[in-house]
Amino acid sequence: MKINRCTQNPLLTPADVRPSNPRFQVDGVFNCGVARYGDEIILLCRVAESVKQDEEGKIEIPIVVNEEGRDRIATVAYDKRVQTQFDYSDNRTIFRTRPNGGRIAVNLTSLSHLRVARSKDGIHFTIDEKPSIMPIASQESWGMEDPRITQIGQVYYITYSAVTENGVCVSLMKTEDFTYFERMGIIFGPENKDVTIFPEKIGGQYVAFNRPVPFGIGNPSMWLAKSPDLLHWGEQELFMAASKEDGWDAGRIGGGAVPVKTEKGWLVVYHAADENDRYCLGIYLLDPEEPKKVIGKLDVPFIEPETVYEKEGFFGNVVFTCGALLEDETLMIYYGAADDKICRVDVALQDIYEMLGV
Asked: Of 120, 159, 94, nearest to 42 (Cα)?
């Protein structure tokens, strides 16, 4: 199968993004939701920012707080030379070691917001000068991450990870013009991520993949849920578990791009990571009337980190998608590379069918 990485990759990098605050630096622009809006392709990008560090050994962490009824950006300071009880080895998160083993996050090193980028050709994007949506203290004090866009009629529904010190939830918002966004609240409580909503009802109900995160038994895996109204979700059912063997999908798996409807069924690109946190993309085809029924599935990675821009970055060896578009019988996948840049890869639909044996 021919995988066509765009020759213009990466399409967006931190250098293309203006910081939201003079004290901030942009660490990454990545993991974008994708939609066709009029004659433009819209990317709703996750932009991760951190505080510029003035003194070696000290770290300032940005968070959102509410004081006297108003939200503002504040910072929490850590001194690695003195506060040695924390684990600073992961450049994404500061951890504390649990007494009985394992680690618990005490802060993220960056704060993410969502920002719109626009393009006429799907390759050359102009990203907005300012954030489109900033996190709020009550629901997203540690940031907003990994948006996914599902178009239903003229409304674009956006799921995203709402991160707080009390866990990661999944929230929903909607827009009709990518200028005004209406928050609809939390739809999956902690800890859950990677929610992708199918773009039409199936059997009279809305359907979505989600990824609960177990801490006692099992690994993070993909589940299916149903809803009458996009707000109240239930009838949870395990769809696909992480591999029990040492492989490319042994660490965790979760939703990737919003499912794309084709003449042969629902085409789903998902992500998986091994036990060393190397992220790849997988692909399968689902029955159009029974989304839990797999028609075809690739057992090896569909796309894996191979290029320099995928292997090297803020967090290397990562390809991670939140959105794809099917146009002119070609699946255009927009993906985050190494947690700091946005890229595109194209695959002919017929090649995918042949690969899946359908």
From this structure: 120
Q: Are 321 and 271 in contact (CB under 8 A)?
A: yes
Closest listed residue to residue 255, CA positions, set 161, 353, 190, 173: 161
The secondary structure element, H or E, covering residue 346 is strand 341-348
Q: 235 — alpha (psi -120 to 50), left (phi > 0) or beta?
A: left
Give the model confidence (pLDDT) of 127-153 as tens digits. Answer: 999 999 999 999 999 999 999 999 999
Pairing assessment for the beta strands 111-119 and 167-175 based on DSSP bridges: unpaired
CATH number at residue 29: 2.115.10.20
Give the residue ranges of DSSP H helices in 294-348.
308-311
Sheet order of strands, 182-188 included: 143-152, 155-164, 167-175, 182-188
Query: pTM score, two decimals?
Result: 0.96
Residues 240, 243, 244: CA angle, nearest 5 degrees? 130
Nearest to 110 by CA among 21, 191, 193, 42: 21
| Cis? peptide before 182, omega within 30° of 0 | no
Domain interval for residue 200: 4-356
Q: Are 51 and 111 in contact (CB under 8 A)?
A: no
Q: Is the dihedral of CA 123, 181, 230, 242 positive or negative?
A: positive
Instruction: Give 348's strand partners.
Output: 330
For 185-233, write each residue's pLDDT tens digit.
999 999 999 999 999 999 999 999 999 998 778 889 999 999 999 999 9
Long-range contacts of 191-195 (CB under 8 A, 24+ apart): 191/167, 191/215, 192/168, 193/146, 193/161, 193/168, 193/220, 193/254, 194/146, 194/161, 194/222, 194/254, 194/255, 194/256, 194/271, 195/148, 195/159, 195/170, 195/255
For strands 126-127 and 24-37, give the pairing: unpaired
Tally of domains within the chain: 1
Element holding 138 (H helix, E strand): helix 137-140
